[in-house]
Amino acid sequence: MIAPDLLEILCCPETHQDLRLAEPAAIDRLNSRITAGTLKNRAGQLIREKLDAGLIRSDGKYLYPVRRGIPVMLVDEAIPLPG
């Protein structure tokens, strides 16, 4: 979904850490939480649109959503990850 050369140059807009593509199982878990109405982004807004994919920051704390093949690289749109 995301070209490898694009993934190589993308980084977290906040910390400039590298990003990696999220595993499908992780996206499925987040989409289940979206369906249940329990997933919020970093700004505290409820997420209503399911994710096609996601980019996880190298420290594993946040995921940037990918919708319709486009990474949403806004700090407030990042999704906090457990653990």
What does this structure look like?
The protein has 83 residues and is of the alpha+beta class. It has one domain (4-80). Helix content is 23%, strand content 22%. The protein is built from two helices and five strands. Strands 1, 2, 3, 4 and 5 form a five-stranded antiparallel β-sheet that branches. Strand 3 (62-67) and strand 4 form a beta hairpin. The longest helix has 13 residues, at 24-36. It starts with a helix and ends with a strand. 19% of the residues are buried.
Largest β sheet strand count, sense and barrel closure = 5 strands, antiparallel
Structural class: alpha+beta
Percentage of residues assigned to helices: 10-25%
Given the C-alpha coordinates, what overall shape results? globular
Rounded to an integer, what's the Rg over CA atoms? 12 Å
Q: Number of folding domains?
A: 1
Distance between the termini: 26 Å
**Count the helices. How many?**
2
* Element string (H = helix, E = strand): HEHEEEE
Let me know the average pLDDT.
95
